[in-house]
Amino acid sequence: MQMQGNTHQILLVDLIEQTNPSAIDKQRRNASYLVCCSPPEVLQYVFDIYVNDEHKMHHQDRDPKAVLPPTALLSHVCARWRALCLDDKHLWAKITIDHHRGRWPPEFIARSGNSPLEVAFGISKKYGLEVALAVVHNMHRVCSLDARGSSEHLQPFCDALTGTAAPILEYLCLGHFPNPAMYGTAVYVPSNIFAGTAPKLRSISLANVFPQGPPVQAFAHLTDVHMDGALTATTAQPFLQSAPDLKVMICWKFSTHPDANTYLPMVPSSLEGKRVDAAQMTCLAIDDDDMAQIVQLLEDVNAPSLSQIGLFNMCLTHPDLEHFTLALPLALSFHIKALRRIHGSCRELAMDSSSITCWPSQSNLVRHDLIDDADDVFPFYAQWDYDDDSFPEEVAPFVDGMLGVLPVDEVRTLSLRYITRNWGSLYRASNVTVLNYTCESPDADVLRFLQAMVPLDQRIDVAGTALDDRTLFPQLARIVFKNMMISTDSGNLVRVLQRLSRARQNDGIALEVAFEGCSGQENITTGLEDMSVTWDGA
What we know:
By secondary structure, this protein is an alpha/beta fold. It has helices at residues 7-19, 21-37, 40-57, 76-86, 104-111, 129-137, 151-160, 233-242, 291-300, 321-343, 392-404, 444-451, 491-506, and strands at residues 94-95, 117-123, 142-149, 171-176, 187-189, 203-207, 209-211, 224-228, 248-252, 276-277, 283-287, 301-302, 308-316, 348-352, 355-358, 380-386, 413-417, 434-438, 478-482, 512-516, 532-535. The chain folds into 4 domains: 1-88, no CATH class; 92-257 and 277-281; 288-407, no CATH class; 412-538, no CATH class. Helix 2 (21-37) runs parallel beside helix 4 (76-86), helix 8 (233-242) packs parallel to helix 9 (291-300) and helix 10 (321-343) packs parallel to helix 11 (392-404).
């Protein structure tokens, strides 16, 4: 590739060569040493500078500051690095979206030798056709394939793959992203894709692309699937039957396409009403607002090895609230038993107004892309939203039903965020010893909640605090308030904490009270001298 240099830099190099040849020799020796000792990441970086430069110079929407100037490539060190990179067949074996134009696809194929190919590209009328053709002709060398486009281009590509085996393919991603004029079209994975032969294929990701069948013969050995609008709860059952080794199933939105069930096979009458055995499945995560399909999928699966369930963005609508208050907990109860058998007692539970998390976070769980925080992975997570006609008070029976199928009586550490009402279902958590409580301020609802932890005959007389006769969290030994703003008028908070501390002392428990990230310490100090109180750990 022809590069244009900086005149001043070239003159400076010439001057050094004339006046100090030993310095040049030393620099060349250092360059040779750097080339030999460079890690693969450095070689990949220099390689990308070279092969992407032509593409970047013609990309008008690129930030000029993000493109290295050609002068950065002129030194003999970079020249040596480039020479080494361009002879590395493995670096040429990765064809990405930046490399599918002009001369690059055949150049990559030719220079990669016999190295396994990783291909990711988009197909359109203008771009990607060269790569598509190269993939079909070299499918026996492809170990990873990611192809995306509209139906008019993606479907012919999928059909062309039926005539060639994929002996080393391990990962397949197909994405259908139609333009507005083609929203009604569909793309199908042919049942005989890869001539039915892909013995190493373990992971697939389908976005608005439907398996034609099932079974798709090449999918027989799958262990990980990510479905984005590619399945319905109805098509999931035969799909699971055709993939007995499946371990991880991520459903990001069920399909709403009218043709999603077009190729659904007939279910034998002997299997009607029976759960599909998914003996190897360890992770099931669903992100969808269609409660009916969520319940159906949970009811259709028998996964005795299931160690992780995630339900995201469920929508509770007023007309169906009563039905799903019973249906969802009932569908979950079968799988909660598997979680408890695998993880043991449920020692931790976290809850806010629209989610429940159970069991401690564990390192051996799947960190899939439905999780916002990769460090926040738990065996059980359920999150819901309300429609405009539903309010937290009306959702209370649903929450009570969810807690009813969880082993709440085993919980020792309970974390609550902004739970000031509808906590009646927490009475069954009678063995809680540590409460982490996040709230905005000690208002009347918070005081009412704290009062419930004090035995009936020891509660203070505060207007509007009629409570259940039972004592909430009778084993409580430590309460941690988080992010609470304490005002000057907080006398009732002090009085309630005093009563709570005495009540626990009568039961032989020395109550600890901690404030973390709270403001207004000066407004609550008086009256707590005889209690074990800490502020931000001090």
